[in-house]
């Protein structure tokens, strides 16, 4: 059976323009106060905690969540605008973007009422950082090969094993982690995995930092030794977490953060090209701009589907695949085009070069994080009934 793809054309409603102005004004103030510098991709780390709380005060974390948990009951399209502006400005969102994007919605859907009441309002205030514990040394794309296990003990579970590539685990308050609670069955190799809410301060957890090419040290290998998790920290169905993972990934894969990570290379190139660029530079800039515009329309369309309560898994995978390929190729393309631009008297060229150097080093990871290109294409093919 072939399944039709739907990317309904959608324009952001007028209320989003007002919100965009508010977010821009807020970010401009933060930049003016020296909280972060959009020209320096990794600036702002030291201020990320306080920044998260100020974003929380504005009501921009958990915007789509129910009011009874502190959320704003606003639309996915409004949330889209906030995320987009934060990405373009390269604001230090690391404390809250995981909980806002996927852990919070997962808890709303599958967490116990007590967990929702105790965790979500604090997350909305920007007080909690979450990380994602899926990948393991022997299992990345193939999550159903997860070996880290949770075994029954009185009043809960004991976790043992290790997770790897866990972004921000060293500073996270909580992880939503996938652990094996039973072996797979013959009929269903996806059976036997359970999601747990893990308080990262629980004894028995050790985070070992792993350096990245960019010089950042956000990655971790997280070791678990007899880590006690109370029963009410099981998220969803015991042995049935595979049913939950797909909706979580639709949230993870389609947002503007999936094509704007190196956007600064295009913005910087446009700046150094000046008002009357060489015809080849103008053509290159035009092409890149048209491409990012198209990606954006597709991504907004997915946000519209999430708004309608749909699970656009295939469409989200397409946005992620095309988006990460685009943002991965962008720094190299920007470098080629910049060679056609005459040197200037000011330091703008040097600043562009510094920025580009970071983006070139960040580019290889983009088609791996959040699902590799090859794996996404498998999902797309299956969704289209081709495999
Ligand atoms: C910046 C970054 C941040 C990350 N953050 C997190 C995080 O916070 N939490 C977390 O759990 N994980 C995280 N990851 C891990 C990431 O999700 C995995 O690395 C990714 O899923 C790939 O797994 P792997 O590295 O084990 O590679 P493998 O799965 O071993 O893949 C190796 C190669 O084989 C290909 N391949 C694998 N399976 C198939 C298939 N079925 N068909 C065709 N080709 C295939 C892949 O495309 C890849 O090229 C992060 C990764 C990066 C780069």
From TrEMBL:
Cytoplasm found in the keyword field: no
SUPFAM superfamilies documented for this protein: Acyl-CoA dehydrogenase C-terminal domain-like (SSF47203), Acyl-CoA dehydrogenase NM domain-like (SSF56645)
UniProt keywords, alphabetically: FAD, Flavoprotein, Oxidoreductase
UniProt entry tagged with the keyword Amino-acid biosynthesis: no
Start and end residues of each Acyl-CoA dehydrogenase/oxidase C-terminal domain: 284-384
Cofactor(s) it depends on: FAD
Annotated Acyl-CoA dehydrogenase/oxidase N-terminal domain residues: 17-127
Family annotation (InterPro entries): Acyl-CoA_DH_CS (IPR006089), Acyl-CoA_Oxase/DH_mid-dom (IPR006091), Acyl-CoA_Oxase/DH_mid-dom_sf (IPR046373), AcylCo_DH-like_C (IPR036250), AcylCo_DH/oxidase_C (IPR009075), AcylCoA_DH/ox_N (IPR013786), AcylCoA_DH/ox_N_sf (IPR037069), AcylCoA_DH/oxidase_NM_dom_sf (IPR009100)
Residue intervals of the Acyl-CoA oxidase/dehydrogenase middle domain: 131-227
Sequence similarity: Belongs to the acyl-CoA dehydrogenase family.
Name by which UniProt lists this protein: Acyl-CoA dehydrogenase family protein
Organism, as annotated: Camelimonas fluminis
Native organism taxonomy: Bacteria, Pseudomonadati, Pseudomonadota, Alphaproteobacteria, Hyphomicrobiales
């Amino acid at each position: 059976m072939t399944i039709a793809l739907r990317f309904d054309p959608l324009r952001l409603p007028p209320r989003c323009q007002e919100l965009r102005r508010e977010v821009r004004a807020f970010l401009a103030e933060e930049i003016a106060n020296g909280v972060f510098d959009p020209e320096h991709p990794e600036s702002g780390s030291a201020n990320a905690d306080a920044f998260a709380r100020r974003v929380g005060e504005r009501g921009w974390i958990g915007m789509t969540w129910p009011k009874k948990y502190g959320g704003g009951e606003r639309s996915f399209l409004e949330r889209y605008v906030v995320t987009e502006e934060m990405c373009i400005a390269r604001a230090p969102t690391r404390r809250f973007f995981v909980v806002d994007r996927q852990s919070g919605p997962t808890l709303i859907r599958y967490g116990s009422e007590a967990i929702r009441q105790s965790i979500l309002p604090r997350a909305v205030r920007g007080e909690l950082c979450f990380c994602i514990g899926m990948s393991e040394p022997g299992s990345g794309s193939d999550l159903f090969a997860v070996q880290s296990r949770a075994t029954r003990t009185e009043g809960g579970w004991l976790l043992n094993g290790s997770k790897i590539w866990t972004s921000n685990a060293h500073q996270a308050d909580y992880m939503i982690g996938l652990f094996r609670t039973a072996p797979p069955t013959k009929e269903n190799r996806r059976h036997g995995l359970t999601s747990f809410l893990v308080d990262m301060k629980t004894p028995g957890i050790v985070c070992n930092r792993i350096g990245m090419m960019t010089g950042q040290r956000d990655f971790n290998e997280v070791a678990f030794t007899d880590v006690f998790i109370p029963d009410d920290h099981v998220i969803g169905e015991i042995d049935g977490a595979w049913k939950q993972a797909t909706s979580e990934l639709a949230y993870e894969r389609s947002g503007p953060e999936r094509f704007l990570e190196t956007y600064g290379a295009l913005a910087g190139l446009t700046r150094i090209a000046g008002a009357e660029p060489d015809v080849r530079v103008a053509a290159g800039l035009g092409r890149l701009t048209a491409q990012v515009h198209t990606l954006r329309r597709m991504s907004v369309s997915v946000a519209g589907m999430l708004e309608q309560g749909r699970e656009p898994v295939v469409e989200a995978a397409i946005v992620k695949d095309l988006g990460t390929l685009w943002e991965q190729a962008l720094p190299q393309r920007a470098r080629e085009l910049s060679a056609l631009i005459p040197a200037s008297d000011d330091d703008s060229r040097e600043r562009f070069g510094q920025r580009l150097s970071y983006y070139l080093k960040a580019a290889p990871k983009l088609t791996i994080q959040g699902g590799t290109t090859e794996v996404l294409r498998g999902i797309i093919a299956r969704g289209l009934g081709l495999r």
